[in-house]
Amino acid sequence: MLNLFGTPHRGGGFCDGRTRRDFLTIGGTLFGGALAAPHLLAAEARQGTRTSHKSVIMVYLPGGPPHIDMWDMKPDAPAEVRGEFNPIDTNVPGVRICEHFPLMAKMMDRFAVVRSLVGSSGDHDAYQCMTGRPRTPANNGYWPSFGAWVSKTQGGADAAVPPHLTLMYRTGEQRWGYPGDGGFLGLAHAPFRLSAGKGTGPADSMTLKGVTLEQLGDRTALVRSLDTIDRRIDRSGLMDGMDTFNRQALDILTSSKLKDALDLTKESPKTLERYGFDDPAFERDGAPRMVRNFLMARRLVEAGARVVTLNFTRWDWHGGDGKNFVQGKKDMPLLDRAVTALVSDLHDRGLDKDVTVLVWGEFGRTPRLNNMASRDHWPQLSTCLLAGGGMRTGQAIGSSNRLGEYAVERPVTHQNVFATLYHNLGIDLNPIREFDPNGRPQYPIDPGTPAIRELV
Questions:
Q1: What pLDDT does 397 receive?
Q2: InterPro entries from the entry (predicted)?
C-alpha cells in the first residue's frame, strides 16, 4: 500500500516506520503497487461499469466497545449487569440507547442498530471487521479486505481518487491499525493509506516525499521501456491500450483532487464546528480522537472514493477501577457528535442513499462487571450501527437475552453485514469469482449469504 504522509520521527524516519529513502520508491510502485490500476481502468472502460458512485464509510472502534452500555442496554437487569449508565428514549418508539448518545437519540430514525451480532473471533484485531473473516494462520495476509474486493469489482469512480482509502492510524497495538490489504487480489487493491502514526492530520502533509513530477516523468519513460519488453512476451493481447490507462493511474498523483478532498480549510466554520474538535493525542496503544476524520471521510467519498475506513480512539477499558464508565463518559459523547454530524451531513448533501455508514468494533463486553467495576472481553455478542445507503433505518434488529449475554432473536454475522454493504454498493455477488495463486476459486463472502433482510 502507498502512503504519502509522514511526520519526522526519532531515528530520521517517519512515524509509520519508513525512512526518507523509502519514499523514493513511490515512483517505482506507481504502476506496480497501490496505484497500479491501469488494467482495472481498462476493464471498466470496456464494460461500462463506471456509471454510478455508491460508497461505504466504515468506522472501526478499536478494543471492543461495550454493547450493553451503548445500544443494547438492560435497565431491568441486576446492578452488576446494567452498570452506571441509563437508557434514554429516541425518536423511534421502543428503541432506547445510552444517555451518552443524546444527539443520536434525536435522529434515531436515520440509524439502524443490530443487537444480535454473533460470531466474533474474540481477538483484539480489526481483521474480521475489515475482511468478514477471523484471522487464521492460513489466511493471514492472504484474504482481501472488503475494500479490496470493491476496488477489484468496481474500480475507481474518479481516475484521480483511489477507490479504496483508509484514514486508519497505525497504533501501538498494531492490529487496531490494520485497514486490510489486497490479499490474493494484489497490492493494486490494497488501501491507499492517508494517515500514518502519531502526528498531524494528513491534510497538513500531503506531499510527495523526495519525488518531483520530473522524476515521475522519468519513471514513466522507464515503464514504457519495460512495456516494450512485456509486449514482446505477452501473447494474450492484455497489454493493448495500456499506455492510456497508465496515464490515468498517474493522474492520481498529479491531480489536486485528492489533496483538495483532504483540505478541511475548504469547509465552512459552521460545518467544522458541527463535528467538534480533534484531539491528536493517541489513547495509549489505540487511535487518537480525530472527530474531523469523519468529515474528511465524507469529503473523500464525495471526491470519488468507494470505501473509506477509519479508527477512533481506544475502547479496551476493562483495566482500572470503574474505567469502563470513566472512559465511556469521555468517548461516547465524542462518537455521538461525530457520527451524527456525518450522517446529518450526508443527508443534507443528498448523499444519504448513496453512502452507507457502518460503526463497529471487534467484539462486545461481558454483561457482568468484573471486580474492578469494568467489563472484560465477550465475543459471544456485540452490536453494530448502520446508516444511509438507502436502507430502512429507524429500527433495532435482533435482540439479546435479558442479561445481554447472547442473541435470542435474529442472529446476524459479519458475513451478513458485508452482504448488506455489497448490496448497497450495487454489487451483484453471484458472478464474482476470483482465483487465488493456487488456482482455487474464491468469493467475496460465502456463497448464499444473505444481506440483512430488514434493511434492504
A1: 98
A2: Alkaline_phosphatase_core_sf (IPR017850), DUF1501 (IPR010869), TAT_signal (IPR006311)
How far is it, in rounded angstroms, from Cα 118 to Cα 216?
Answer: 48
CB atoms within 10 A of CB 365: 30
| Alpha carbons 291 and 83: distance in angstroms, whole number | 27
- Average pLDDT for the chain: 84
- DSSP-assigned letters across all residues of 54-84: -EEEEEE-TT---GGGTTS--TTS-HHHH-S
Residues contacting residue 99 through CB under 8 Å, at least 6 positions apart? 85, 86, 87, 88
- In angstroms, how far apart are the furthest CA atoms of the chain? 75
C-alpha cell read off for 42: 481498462
Domain positions in the chain: 53-206+260-442
Copy the grid coordinates of residue 181.
490489504
CB 200 within 8 A of CB 211: no
**CATH C-level class of 53-206+260-442:** alpha beta
Q: What is the layout of strands, in order, in the sheet containing 55-60?
A: 192-193, 164-166, 307-311, 55-60, 355-360, 382-388, 111-117, 395-397
- Whole-structure pTM value: 0.83
